[in-house]
Amino acid sequence: VRTLLAVFCIAVILAGCGMFGDAKPVISEAPASCKSADPVTKVVAIDAICAEAFDVINQANVLLIATDRAITDRVNSGIWTRDQAIPFFQRTSRLGEQVDQAERFFSAGTYTSAKAQADATKTLLLIIQKEVAAAAAKKSEVDPQLNFMIGASA
Amino acid sequence: MSAVLAGEIGGIAVSKILDFAFAAAEVGLNRQEVVEEARAMEQSGLSPEQVFTALSDKRKAAHADLAKALGLV
Predict the structure, then answer these.
(1) Is A36 helix (H, G, I), strand (E, B) or coil?
(2) What distances in angstroms separate CA A135 from CA A85, A97, B10, B14, one per listed residue?
(3) ipTM, 2 decimals?
(4) So what's the pLDDT on residue A112?
């Protein structure tokens, strides 16, 4: 029974690691704006920074959608009160504005700025996702000990 | 192992760790669901640019749904 319980705990914790994502790009193909064909050889080259910026913005959008949906589910099912959810809403609002900015950089062709903006936003989103999970576990304020265990910061 | 039996790992209640793990798994599933939505759009023939825009629109819609659930709109 002890062994089964320990194995079960490890399996569930590993399943939780799914929230940190996989290494594959969200969209497998690079957009046309990241491609250029050699006029002579016609070989198509992909601008790596452009393709990375494109993927990181997609990842940030995926994380924001997943986070907002998770919070909405908790509010609608009565697990969280409005007061518990509003601070998370305010944070995802700000991060949404940052993704908007990254998208504007990308549309303007400033891929390095777009990638830097989206990378910074993604990092903050991963922290929020951990906090949503930790807050859901405690159903009130985030437990500092649990927060330490998952490596989240304020 | 005796700590597990006593209901604690590293001083944290097993129930709390399990609650966290289930919540993390739920967030992970939400994330995977959105990735699959994006890949389905791509497979349906939408260009990468169109999927990019659709994801951005979905993000705004998800945030609007949350605002509605909170009674902010």
Answers:
(1) strand
(2) 10, 24, 19, 16
(3) 0.76
(4) 97
Is residue B18 packed enough to be buried (19+ CB in 10 Å), middle (13-18) or exposed (0-12)?
middle
Taking the C-alpha atoms of residue B72 and residue A125, their distance in angstroms, rounded to an integer, is 22
Q: Which of A94, A77, A105, A91 is nearest to A142 (CA)?
A: A91
Which residues from chain B sit within 8 angstroms of residue A137, using beta carbons? 16, 19-20, 22-23
Residue A65 at interface with chain B, using a CB cutoff of 8 Å: yes
What is the number of residues in chain B?
73
Q: What pTM value is reported for the model? A: 0.77
Check B20 against A137: CB less than 8 A apart.
Answer: yes
Q: What is the pLDDT of residues A40-73, one digit of tens each?
A: 998 999 999 999 999 999 999 999 999 999 999 9
The candidate with the shortest Cα–Cα distance to A140, out of B19, B35, B44, B27, is B19
pLDDT on residue B5: 52
Beta-strand pair B8-9/B12-13 = antiparallel
